[in-house]
Design brief:
Helix 2 packs across helix 3. This protein has six helices and seven strands; from the N terminus they run E-H-H-E-H-E-H-H-E-H-E-E-E. The chain has helices at about 15, 30-45, 60-70, 100-110, 125-140, 155-165; strands spanning about 1-10, 50-55, 75, 145-150, 180-185, 185-190, 190-195. It is an alpha/beta fold. Helix content is about 35%, strand content about 15%. The chain has one domain (about 1-195): Phosphoglycerate mutase-like (Rossmann fold, 3-Layer(aba) Sandwich), CATH 3.40.50.1240. Strands 1, 2, 3, 4, 5, 6 and 7 form a seven-stranded mixed β-sheet that branches.
Length: about 200
């Protein structure tokens, strides 16, 4: 049985400024780089990953490069692990929630809120479909290997929801937090937040 050691990228400049990332080029902050280095030091004694896979977005790739250097592991960039495309919300403050729109508010208060797309963007369900497909493909290519997978909050939330059967109790680790998923024969197991990351 292999393990997917799913890692949320370190603190980005958008996280620090409390805005939705304007693009895939948003970099890490100095805090984010330090978080990635500390995470590299924690992963080594606890797991035995054979490779690191990353989203192509700069904040995830910078995190992955720091971890890969610390663990001396090969790094592969994979399409499909990017953060949710927030369309018209990109670059705007978190405080400008979509509930400001009457249409969005009624949708977001329904049981189908995970299907809602901001104009020009993606729903959580869109993210779930592409991210789960990537993880299943990785499991098929590298059976029984432990891998570090560096991605984003919406990716991890959506994967959790897929494996848990719904979004109601889905969780997102903090920056540079870990979500563990065991896998074998093309089947992903139940997710769990690694105990060092519980608050």
């Amino acid at each position: 049985m292999g393990k997917l050691i799913m890692v949320r990228h370190g603190e980005s400049e958008a996280n620090r400024s409390r805005i939705f990332g304007a693009s895939g080029e948003v970099p890490l902050t100095e805090v984010g780089r330090r978080q990635a280095q500390e995470l590299s030091e924690r992963i080594g004694p606890r797991f035995r990953p054979e490779r690191i896979v990353s989203s192509k977005f700069k904040r995830a790739l910078e995190t992955a490069e720091i971890i890969a250097a610390g663990l001396q592991l090969p790094l592969e960039v994979i399409d499909g692990l990017e953060e949710r495309d927030l369309g018209c919300l990109k670059g705007r403050p978190w405080a400008e929630r979509p509930e400001a729109s009457a249409e969005a508010a009624s949708f977001l208060n329904s049981e189908e809120q995970w299907l809602w797309r901001p104009a020009g963007g993606e729903s959580y369900e869109d993210v779930r479909r592409r991210a789960v497909a990537v993880l299943l493909a990785l499991g098929g290519r590298y059976p029984q290997q432990d891998m570090v997978v560096v991605s984003h909050g919406a990716v991890m939330l959506s994967v959790w929801a897929h494996l848990a059967g719904g979004y109601r109790h889905a969780r997102v680790p903090r920056n540079c937090g870990i979500m563990l998923i065991e896998y074998q024969a093309g089947v992903l197991g139940s997710p769990q937040i690694f105990e060092d990351d519980q608050q």
